[in-house]
Backbone:
């Protein structure tokens, strides 16, 4: 079994390490050949790092782990080397310009892919790289879930067929975490609880309008990931919200900004009211 992991940032590298520890050989693609280094963690020998996408052609499964902002371009470039392997989308977010989920972009840019899934849940990369207990939702077609569960058997996985629901949770928690970080500086504790609850309710409403299942929002990809991301300074989106409230420029890629824009685009298309999400975008000046 060979897994191709596309994207060598923190999350991609952590997943590569996890798969390799479980006995799967890994081809880890990095656009510049560099990979994330975790202090005190030695990468297994069965990981091959490459900057040449041609080396992905022979893999039995692809795990795509690029930021949402670069997902379409990366899939388009990788498409010429695709040979029909199941694809696990490990990117959380929506495309800002279109509001499209990653599975919708995959369908456009990789039309030959018939077996695919989405991995989403409460996952801080450093803890995963260190082998600490971590659970996630894996939603997708039966074949994609089966091979994904084999490759990532060191994670606790909750299997589902609700791809759109799992994606909506990943998009929504990024946006709500950003909002909660901002509110941590600008609101009292009672108001922060109200903002979180109402904002997540709007995310659920958008998701249900898209055809998602209610129970998905109660799974690891839903309330589990929301709890992790919207309450911790380790969360990039929560920290970005803090930075904006403090008048500082957020560091790195902030998925929550793209997620919030994407959510509101989808809500407008579906005529779903979003007073909290819309109001917070104005306050965040996005």
Residues:
């Amino acid at each position: 079994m060979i897994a191709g992991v596309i994207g060598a940032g923190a999350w991609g590298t952590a997943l590569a390490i996890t798969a390799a520890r479980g006995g799967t050989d890994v081809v880890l693609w990095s656009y510049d050949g560099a990979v994330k280094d975790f202090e005190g963690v030695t990468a297994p020998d069965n990981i091959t790092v490459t900057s040449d996408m041609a080396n992905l052609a022979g893999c039995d499964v692809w795990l795509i782990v690029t930021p949402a902002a670069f997902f379409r371009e990366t899939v388009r470039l990788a498409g010429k080397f695709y040979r029909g392997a199941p694809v696990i989308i490990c990117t959380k977010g929506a495309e800002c310009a279109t509001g499209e989920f990653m599975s919708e972009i995959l369908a456009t840019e990789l039309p030959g892919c018939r077996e695919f899934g989405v991995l989403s849940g409460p996952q801080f990369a450093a803890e995963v790289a260190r082998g600490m207990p971590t659970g996630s939702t894996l939603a997708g077609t039966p074949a994609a879930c089966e091979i994904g569960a084999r490759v990532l058997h060191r994670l606790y996985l909750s299997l589902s067929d609700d791809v759109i629901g799992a994606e909506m949770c990943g998009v929504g928690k990024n946006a709500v975490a950003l909002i909660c970080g901002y509110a941590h500086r600008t609101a009292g504790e009672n108001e922060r609880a109200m903002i979180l609850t109402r904002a997540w309710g709007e995310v659920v409403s958008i998701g249900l309008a898209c055809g998602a299942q209610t129970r998905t929002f109660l799974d690891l990809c839903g309330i589990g990931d929301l709890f992790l991301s919207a309450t911790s300074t380790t969360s990039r989106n929560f920290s970005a919200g803090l930075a904006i409230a403090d008048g500082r420029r957020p560091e790195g890629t902030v998925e929550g900004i793209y997620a919030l824009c994407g959510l509101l685009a989808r809500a407008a298309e579906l005529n779903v009211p979003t007073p909290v999400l819309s109001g917070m975008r104005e306050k965040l000046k996005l």
